[in-house]
From TrEMBL, chains A, B:
The keyword Oxidoreductase is annotated on this UniProt entry: yes
Transmembrane segments: none
Catalytic EC class: oxidoreductase
Catalytic activity: (R)-malate + NAD(+) = pyruvate + CO2 + NADH
SUPFAM superfamilies from the UniProt entry: Isocitrate/Isopropylmalate dehydrogenase-like
Span of domain Isopropylmalate dehydrogenase-like: 5-345
Protein name as catalogued: D-malate dehydrogenase (decarboxylating)
Entry cofactors: Mn(2+); Mg(2+)
Gene source species: Jeotgalibacillus marinus
Enzyme Commission number, as recorded: 1.1.1.83
Alphabetical keyword list: Manganese, Metal-binding, NAD, Oxidoreductase
Length: 351, 351
């Protein structure tokens, strides 16, 4: 029997609720398979931990996570009690950086039974490969305080290594899919980092003559995610551009509550981390209303990564069967609770 | 009789076609008014000028523009013959910078007869106030060339002066409208410039206790432009964020071909410049297919700025009457040519 060690970090707010759902689904998937066991260890880190200890996670937290095969995260942040920059940089971004999770892979597609806000959406199925370690989210910079003459400087840092790594991953991924890669740029307005990005894209593309390439400026590309999402296959984007595009992708799918993501350590030096795109949603936390599908679809991405693609597929199929039957939370025009959706997925999986 | 001097810069591609339309509309508006004359001087600057002379506009171009009451621009760029960074930074961005057009004001709303790609759009009516002089579009930065260790650095520069100027304009504008200002931020990921932006927003807001304020991260805000554009009134955004939001706004209105913008010199030291949001669209240039509404609505914004708000309103009303009657270009599900739409607007104005 294969034993897979999963670190579960429910985090804050709805993270706790949707984590509970997804763990049940993972457990059921393992039971169905018979040959694998998911050993899930909970770490109650997050804003409450911060209030008790002054830190979002213990000092040896990252070291402890490194012992696992994968990290499964709910959501981080409770701005009413901990400022966002402390909670996010003390846990979510800290894990992304210190486990060297250099890519954030986020699919967007139509799911049966979930209505897109678009009038007549074509059947899109795209994946954004987001650079996850640097770029616009760099800590370099500062503010020169001088009253009315204050100046803030924010340094975006783009390395060849990280840029090319994201692009190569996108090209390899496109080979397994629609064989198209679109690069998100803004070299007409951002004149150092983005022309560099374009050049690395052109150079890297030479190694993938079988892949069709294109570039689009982030303004136009954001609009295209609304007007013609079906024209994309794999999109490679910087940290900020990937962040923006994937929220638009979620909106166009029908709810941010369903969107999954994988934060990958592509070198395999440390475990990868899996988290839904949505946040901790303090406004609906604790009410049993949260959509568990983002976390469950994220579990599927984790299973794919761990090599259990058949189980991942079974989970997504069961989920679509449930949404198609109309058992849905309020964010996707349903009336069911987190628990009802979870139970429906569990019993569909059983079949 | 008041004489208003307008510098017309058709530029490239469809810019030339839609400029011809909008000039006719301006002429007709002046005839209707009786008390004003628009003296329109053409400057054939752009990519052809670059091919002939090596520059997008003559050396004294900016000085010549300063003599006018307003600058009316079509679109800039013909990437097949002039690289984008040369054409845009040699003309569009050059004008924005050298005429000190520190704000880019871009409305988005539903227009009668133009179908939004949204399934059930509520009647939204928002204005993005985009900082137009600095921020992410700074020329500071560079690339350290060192083979596989290459690093590109892009410095975003945010001054108190420009940041506060954009925000004050947004607050003043909100006072004339829905009394709400939303600040586009990303301080949870971009840790120097965006917390600075947030702080200036909070400080500036104190002077406008009558205005309701909120902040939203650019990823979520981009999604909200799709899921609930009706919840916004005035949005204040950095150069890059404003760029992205206004393209999404155009998409949600139904076509980038209809979106207008005003590049304002708020101090009144130099003329302001008015240009549609769309580009030169080389793919459809010269075919008589371009949608003239973006340029015509831009003419309305110029008239508003020059103090002829009644004429501006007449133009927009005539345009909506025409779109409602179904006389529309292909980008908004019509079959009419640029010329047919223009003629229809002219004869509606006549009435
Ligand atoms: C062409 C480009 C430099 C420009 C910008 O980013 O400002 C355009 O997208 C716009 O919005 O006017
Ligand atoms: C919470 C925030 C820092 C984060 C990001 O911008 O990366 C989130 O928006 C995401 O997309 O995972």
């Amino acid at each position: 029997m294969n034993k897979i060690e999963i670190a579960c970090l429910p985090g804050d707010g709805v993270g706790i609720e949707v984590m509970a759902s997804a763990k049940q689904v993972l457990q059921k998937a393992a039971d169905m398979h018979g040959g694998v066991q998911f050993s899930m260890t909970d770490f109650p880190w997050g804003s409450d931990h911060y209030i008790e200890t002054g830190a979002m996670m213990p000092e040896d937290g990252i070291e402890r996570l490194k012992e696992f095969d994968a990290v499964f995260l709910g959501a981080v942040g409770n701005p009413a009690v901990v400022p966002d920059h402390i909670s996010l940089w003390g846990m979510l971004i800290k894990i992304r950086r210190e486990l060297e999770l250099s890519l954030n892979v986020r699919p967007a597609r139509l799911i049966k039974g979930i209505q897109s806000p678009l009038r007549s959406p074509k059947d899109f199925d795209l994946i954004v490969v987001r650079e996850n370690s640097e770029g616009e989210y760099s800590e370099a910079g500062g503010v020169i305080h001088n009253g009315q003459n204050e100046i803030a400087v924010q340094n975006g840092i783009f390395t060849r290594k990280a840029t090319e790594r994201a692009m190569r991953y996108a090209f390899e991924l496109a080979r397994t899919r629609g064989k198209k890669v679109t690069s998100a740029t803004k070299s007409n307005g951002i004149v150092h980092s983005m022309p560099f990005w374009d050049r690395v894209f052109q150079e890297t593309a030479k190694d993938y003559p079988d892949i069709e390439t294109s570039s689009a400026h982030i303004d136009a590309l954001s609009a295209f995610f609304v007007t013609k999402p079906e024209s994309f296959d794999v999109i490679v984007a910087s940290n900020l551009f990937g962040d923006i595009l994937t929220d638009i992708g979620s909106a166009v799918m029908g709810s941010i509550g369903i969107a999954p993501s994988a934060n990958l350590n592509v070198e395999g030096t440390y475990p990868s981390m899996f988290e839904p795109v949505h946040g901790s949603a303090p406004d609906i936390a604790g009410q049993g209303k949260a959509n568990p599908i983002g976390q469950i679809w994220t579990a599927k991405m984790m299973l794919d990564h761990l090599g259990y693609t058949d189980l991942g597929q079974a989970i997504l199929d069961a989920t679509e069967e449930v949404t198609e039957s109309g058992i849905k939370t309020a964010d996707i025009q349903g009336t069911s609770s987190t628990e009802e959706v979870t139970q429906a997925i569990l019993s569909t999986l059983q079949k």
